[in-house]
Design brief:
The complex is a heterodimer of chains A (about 475) and B (about 300).
Chain A lengths: L1 H8 L13 H21 L5 H21 L2 H4 L2 H15 L8 E3 L7 E3 H24 L3 H39 L4 E2 L6 E6 L2 E6 L2 E2 L1 H4 L12 H32 L4 H15 L2 H12 L9 H25 L3 H9 L4 H29 L3 H6 L14 H4 L1 E2 L6 E2 L10 H11 L3 H4 L3 H34 L3
Antiparallel strand pairs in A: 1-2, 3-6, 4-5, 7-8
Helix pairs in contact in A: 1-5, 2-3, 5-6, 6-7, 7-19, 9-12, 9-14, 9-17, 10-12, 11-12, 12-14, 13-14, 14-19, 17-19
Chain B lengths: L1 H7 L18 H9 L8 E12 L2 E12 L3 E5 L6 H7 L10 E9 L2 E2 L7 H7 E4 L10 H11 L7 H5 L5 H14 L3 H4 L12 H14 L4 E5 L7 H14 L4 E5 L3 H7 L2 E6 L3 E7 H6 L4 H7 L5
Parallel strand pairs in B: 3-8, 3-9, 6-7, 7-8
Antiparallel strand pairs in B: 1-2, 1-4, 4-5, 9-10
Helix pairs in contact in B: 5-9, 7-9, 9-10
The chains are: A mainly alpha (about 475), B alpha/beta (about 300).
Chain lengths: ~475, ~300
């Protein structure tokens, strides 16, 4: 690459360079050189901290100046090319070998190990080299810079996908053994389910058995599982959404369609944004101090639902409001000109057009609340391990009584567990795992995997809903 | 207000120029009174008297009085910002939707005052339909666009409960959709895809759909705010034919920038000029061939505006 730059300068390669590589390239080339030379000065030449920093800065400035004041084809290739060469040599010749540790010498023990430095250094180098190479590929000048910027931006986008992929893959690889612990597939191995239909009970047997997601924790279980936490998480999200979505949409309708824009709506807006940025542990404390004494003074599923509902509310409000504001006024005018009342217009034109945006907000909000630990810890969670008998049966729990409030549901008022809390408890409990769970590490990772799957399932449901509503609105 | 009260008692048959009681005998104003007095055969559908509109401090429409005959096409022409659209929007009280707008004066539909307490806006806008400058169909199916108004008014009901008790008006709905689309000369183009989204239609088709949608509520007056300004010549000529057809049954008031269009389609023309004043109103032929005002003559011949 550096050769290409030199070749271009000497006229062997036909390019179209500018007078200078520019300030950005100068700074970008200067910083790594400053770091390397500073490091080299302190480690290899035994300079003191101050001297090393000075030496590093000096080299950095020199490289910057060289980049900025030479012609672009030299400036944008040679310093970065040389950087790659030097780093490669350093790693290959084991000047920084696998055993290398740089103790920072601070009061707290802090050090940079080769395990960390070498991959990061390689990645950064690759990025710099890719940038310079793509500039050279574009023949420098405006086109070269365009190609360079494109490569950088493309790498950014790619790295997001890569991060997600690495995260999911890591969790899956670690979690699958625990998840499949004791799992059996084949006809007749699963639990039997009986469906009552018109007086006849149809029983069928699931063709698989995965104890980790089908069992709770009990002393006599062959394999332990997290079923109560899964069910708890699902009910928690369902309850929070049922509570927050109607309230949030209602408030958004009032604020966009009815309230006159003024100090009041602004105050509501600021309060909403503030509420959204409130730390979740504060919501948890609120639930603990305000809700729990009102629900029989014990942690309960209902208290958890409401607390998470409060957390979800501001985001639903904000996104619904944005979605309604972006519904074109022409629709409202057209509807009014047909003699349709305001409320009917909102219901049959504005809301359907705003729904995809509302659903997006709910998706984002669910993603946040489904993984919340702190509020659950304070408002809802029982013990570290929840026996399978404590799985919340919310639908079956409804009962009707003759006196107010007419509907009771003891299941809602019981403490239960949820996956994020379960995971937190498993990690912090440390001791006591051995008796119940054969391999605590496997158990934790499997819990994390199940949590990830549950949250992504909610996400998938949301995306599907949004797709459905979008399809209805568009003509393609 | 004395002027409004006095002019309200006039009949549309007044032909001679009448000195105004409030304009201090200014000759311009007197002339304007004369120029805007238009005698026509037939009944008055809409009578506007001393209409003033303010948007905040902006005086958008000044003392406009005119009478619009039934079953005819009335064109409103004038340069941008002269108040044509504002005037149009006063005729079905759409200006009520603009918070800063203030309307003074009188508009009567079949003799009953629109600007008074207790007027049912829903009922009014059913009787006075409107088509906007840019096509604005709802993001729903073609069928739902047409039946939207009648459904919301409760004239037809195809809801779940109605279907369950066997009182669904699906047949009426089908008839209404077909009839409205035929009236708007769109039926043959969309008969096979009534359940497709209306946004998939072309601009001209969308505008005709909007006209069909307005017709579906069975209005008496149809207000059109530059309905063809966003369309190509072929779509425009279709809309113009359609307007001509509609004037047999409906009273059409149309705002247009295009003077040739006004000349082609309208029975009478009102010219608004800058400052929100109605300068001349009369038979279209007379306005275009022999305008009484020099300014209107200049405007029509392209010297001004």
């Amino acid at each position: 690459m550096a050769t290409f730059g030199v070749g271009s300068r000497l006229g062997y390669v036909d390019t179209n360079p500018d007078r200078s590589a520019g300030l950005v390239a100068a700074v970008a080339a200067g910083i790594p050189w400053a770091v390397i030379c500073g490091g080299a000065a302190s480690e290899l030449l035994g300079f003191g901290t101050v001297l090393a920093i000075v030496a590093g800065l000096l080299t950095g400035c020199l490289v910057s100046a060289a980049t900025a004041f030479s012609r672009e084809d030299i400036g944008s290739t040679v310093p970065l090319g040389a950087l790659s060469i030097v780093t490669g040599l350093v790693f290959l010749t084991s000047v920084l070998g696998p055993e290398w540790v740089w103790s920072l010498g601070w009061e707290q023990p802090a050090s940079l190990t080769a395990e960390f430095v070498i991959p990061i250094g390689t990645l950064l180098n690759a990025m710099f080299a890719g940038w310079a190479a793509s500039k050279a590929y574009g023949g420098f000048g405006a086109r070269g810079r365009h190609v360079g910027a494109y490569v950088l931006v493309y790498l950014n986008a790619l790295s997001i996908v890569a991060f997600l992929f690495v995260l999911v893959a890591f969790t899956v690889v670690r979690g699958v053994p625990g998840l499949l612990n004791g799992a059996e597939f084949g006809l007749g191995v699963g639990p039997a389910t009986t469906i009552e239909l018109a007086g006849f009970g149809f029983t069928f047997v699931w063709p698989f058995s995965v104890p980790f997601v089908m069992n709770g924790v009990a002393l006599l279980n062959d394999f332990q599982g997290v079923l109560p936490a899964i069910v708890g998480t699902i009910w928690l999200v369902v309850g929070a959404v049922l509570f927050a979505v109607p309230l949030g949409i209602g408030a958004a309708i009032f604020l966009t369609e009815y309230a006159e824009q003024g100090p009041f709506t602004q105050a509501v807006e600021i309060a909403t944004n503030g509420l959204w940025s409130t730390p979740s542990i504060v919501f948890g404390l609120f639930g603990f101090a305000f809700l729990i004494p009102r629900f029989g003074n014990s942690k309960s599923l209902l208290a958890g639902m409401l607390t998470l509902g409060f957390m979800l509310l501001p985001l639903v409000l904000i996104t619904s409001r944005e979605a309604m504001i972006s519904v074109p006024d022409e629709y409202r005018d057209a509807s009014a000109a047909l003699g349709v009342s305001k409320w009917q217009t909102i219901r049959s034109v504005v809301l359907p057009a705003a729904l995809p945006g509302v659903v997006t907000g709910v998706i984002l909000g669910v993603g946040r609340i489904a993984g919340e630990t702190a509020p659950i810890l304070l408002t809802m969670a029982g013990g570290t391990f929840v026996p399978g008998s404590q799985t919340a049966d919310v639908i079956g729990g409804f009962g009707f009584v003759a006196s107010p409030p007419f509907v009771t549901n003891p299941e809602l008022l019981q403490a239960t567990s949820a996956l994020p809390y379960q995971l937190f408890a498993l990690i912090t409990a440390g001791v006591g795992l051995g008796d119940n769970v054969a391999n605590p590490d496997e158990f934790r990772w499997a819990t994390a995997l199940v949590l990830l799957v549950v949250v992504l399932s909610f996400y998938a449901v949301g995306i599907a809903t949004r797709y459905y509503f979008r399809r209805k609105l568009s003509y393609e | 207000m004395s002027e409004i009260e006095s002019t309200q008692t006039q009949t549309h048959q007044s032909t001679a120029s009448q000195p105004s009681q409030t304009t201090n005998g200014e000759s311009d104003e007197q002339l304007r009174e004369a120029w805007t007095d238009h005698a026509f055969d037939g009944d008055t559908k809409l009578a506007v008297d001393g209409l003033d509109v303010h948007y905040g401090d902006d005086h958008a429409l000044k003392d406009v009085s005119m009478e619009i005959p039934e079953r005819s096409v009335t064109a409103l022409i004038g340069p941008s910002g002269c108040g044509k659209s504002t005037f149009l929007r006063c005729l079905n009280r759409m200006n009520d939707r603009i918070p800063s707008a203030r309307v003074d004066g009188s508009v009567r539909l079949d003799g009953s005052e629109l600007y008074q307490e207790g007027v049912d806006l829903v009922e009014l806008r059913k009787r006075v339909g409107m088509v906007f400058q840019s096509p604005n169909p709802f993001p729903k199916s073609i069928r739902d666009n047409i039946s939207y108004g009648p459904r919301k008014h409760g004239d037809i009901d195809t809801g779940l409960i109605a279907r369950m008790i066997g009182r669904s008006d699906e047949r009426q709905e089908r008839q209404l959709v077909e009839q409205s689309l035929r009236q708007a000369a769109l039926w043959d183009e969309v008969r096979d895809r009534l359940d497709d989204n209306a946004l998939g239609l072309s601009g001209g088709q969308q505008q005709r759909l909007c006209i069909a949608r307005a017709l579906a509520t069975d209005p008496e007056v149809l207000l059109m705010d530059e309905p063809a300004s966003a369309l190509d010549p072929i779509a425009t000529s279709k809309i113009e034919e359609l307007i001509h057809e509609l004037s047999r049954e409906y009273t059409v008031v149309i705002v247009t920038h295009n003077m040739q269009q006004a000349e082609r389609i309208s029975d009478q023309t009102a010219v608004f000029l800058t400052g929100g004043k109605l300068v001349e109103y009369g038979d279209t032929e007379q306005i275009f061939d022999d305008p009484r005002s020099q300014r209107v003559d200049d405007y029509i011949s392209g010297k001004f505006g």
